[in-house]
Structure formats: C-alpha cells, structure tokens
Amino acid sequence: MEREEKSKSLKVNKRSITQLVAAVLYNCNIKGFMKGSLYKGNLKGVCVPGLNCYSCPGAVASCPLGSLQSGLLSSKYKIPYYVLGLLILFGLLFGRFICGFLCPFGFLQDLLDKLARKLHLPELKKSRVTRVLSYLKYVILIAFVIIIPLVKLTPGFCKYICPVGTLEAGIPLVSGNSELREITGWLFSWKVFLMCAILLFCMLCYRAFCRFLCPLGALYSMFNPISFFGIKVDEAKCTHCNACVRACRMDVKKVCDRECIHCGGCVPHCKEGAIRYGVKGLGK
Amino acid sequence: MKRKTLVNIIRVVLLIGAFLLMGLGLNARGFSDVKNKAVRICYECMGIG
Q: Which of A219, A259, A86, A83 is nearest to B15 (CA)?
C-alpha cells in the first residue's frame, strides 16, 4: 500500500515536472513579457503539440489550433497541408498523452484541481451526464474550428471561446498597452468572463475544459487508440476488475479509450501490474 | 491478432500520410504561412475582434 502511494506520488511528480518544463519551453521568450511584444524568430513556423497561444508574448512557437483555423481561412487558395500533417503526426505519435503531459492549459487545470482539493471545494464527479457532455468538444471542433473559419472566414474558436488566448495573450497585452485597452469591447469582456467561468468550473470538475470543450483534445482523441506512445494494458495480466476505470477521473470506459489522457493515475490501482507506459510498437 | 495487424496498417498509412502532407505543405510555403500569422498580434485570439 505504502509502495503504491509512493509510486503514485512519484508518477504525479514526474508528470508535473514534464508539464512545467513543456509550459516553460513553449513560453521562454522572457523579453516579450517585459516589452509586451511577440517573438518573431523562425521557430514560430513550427507548431507545439499542446494548446498555447502564439500571441502570448512569451510564445516561441505556434498554436496548432490557431494555425489550423488560420490555414482554413485561406483554404480557398491554399489547403493547410503542413498544419494538417503536423497534427496527424502529433496525434499518431502521442494521442492524448499530449493533454496529460505536454499542454500548459492542462497543467493549469491540474494546479487548479490541486488547489480546489486543498480548499475542500465540492467536486463534480464523473457520471453519465459528464460522459454525454464529453461529446461537446467534437461539436466545437466541427463548428468553431472547421465550419466557421471556412464559411465566415473568422477563426471561430480563437475569437469566441479560447480561454488560452485570453489568458496568455489578451490579458498580458491589453494590460500593458493603453492603445489596445482603448479598442477592447464586448468581445473582450465576453472572453474574460468565459475564461473566468471555465477556470472556476475546472476547480469544481477535474479537467473540465479538456473533457468538455477542447477541440484539440477532440482531435487527438481520435488517434488515442492507435497512438504509438502512451499507457498500455497487458491483456494477459488484466483480470477486467475495472479498478483502473473506477480510479480514473476522466470519462473513460476503458484505459486508453478516447477520453484517456495517459496521466498514469490508474497505474498504482492495478493490483496485477497490467498497466504501464510504453511504445505500442509495430511488433506483436 | 487481426485487430493488431489492422491497427499497424492504419498507423503506417497515417504516418506516411502525415509526412506527405508536411512535405506538400512545406513545398507550398506552409512554414512561412504559419510563421507570418504567428509573429503578428492576433486580435481574435486576444478577444479584440
């Protein structure tokens, strides 16, 4: 039992460190935060796997969702093959392991959850309702990331929903620039309100944004069962006791299904030791 | 065993597809398009419009 707890805390710590390193690496342009300007180097032509706004003063690379929407806006003249290829590659290599380990907004949600548990706030646990709500992110993916950019020629998700853009770009840039402050209107107010609501909801419901709203998570979830790297179950050892599913705080029906973020929370709960991280290779 | 083979075939096809798409995109200046968008302040992302 003690060993289980120790292994759990080690795993959680390793994951937190990975998340922190990813968040810092994505946003290591410290000068940008001080000057209120954006990094303009060549790395901006590469997308990071996680959700990280490219208009954040610290961002040194691009947001895959923002780049996809931007590419779809001009798809009448040019199909965004490069971004599509990158997204397929990220999804195929890691699936939603990216949500668990490489997404700064996922990290923020984990921190908020830890804070909420310390404050003994009530928690909305997974249920049939949350399972149904988990399909909402696919609607957002289709409507706001694909249809609105194609039809209305505006990046629907970035413009109306994305709390990451508001948090990483909107607030730092608007607070440090009086000219930008003057041109803010109802849309900025809406986005700040929505961001606050989402962050608050994440304190009451574990990873609420990832589970119900994130279109990038929706995209990667399609690759989850076939991704090369992540959690895998040794079928020979598995007794189908479902302890893993009961321990999981996401809306999973089985380990490594579309909702699994490969956080490893289930690993210490498997008495048979059937769950582990690994490369799901091309062999047997 | 059959399912695993099918999964591996899908993986290889998608992997080749991903590299092909990236190659096509790079050839069509996709890298510059992404960079050019990302080096300017995105008013939509910020919530300005």
A: A86
Average pLDDT, chain A: 91
Give residue-wise pLDDT tens across range A148-183.
999 988 999 999 999 999 999 999 988 888 888 888
What is the pLDDT confidence band of residue A62, given thresholds at 50, 70 and 90?
Answer: very high
A88 within 8 A of A64, measured Cβ to Cβ: no
Q: What pLDDT, on the 0 to 100 scale, is given for residue A240?
A: 92
Residue A62 has what DSSP assignment?
B
Please give the full DSSP string across A154-192, using - where no structure is assigned.
Answer: S-HHHHHT-HHHIIIIIHHHHHT-HHHHHT--HHHHHHH
Helix (H) or strand (E) holding A267: none
- Chain B positions touching A66 (Cβ under 8 A) are 37-38, 42, 45
- B22 min Cα distance to partner chain A (Å): 4
Helix B2-27 × helix B30-38 angle, to 10° = 80
At B30 the three-state DSSP class reads: helix
Confidence grade of residue A284 (pLDDT, cut at 50, 70, 90): very low
Query: Which contiguous run of DSSP H or E holds residue A232?
Result: strand A229-233
d(CA B2, CA B9): 11
Are B11 and A92 inside 8 Å of each other by CB? Answer: yes
Interfacial B residues in 1-49 facing A (CB < 8 Å): 1, 4, 7-8, 10-12, 14-15, 17-26, 28, 30-35, 37-42, 44-49
User: pTM (2 decimals)?
Assistant: 0.91
Query: Which residue in the block uniquely carries the two structure tokens 């949600």?
Result: A109
Cβ distance of A45 and B31 shorter than 8 Å? yes
Distance from CA of A42 to the nearest CA of B (A): 7
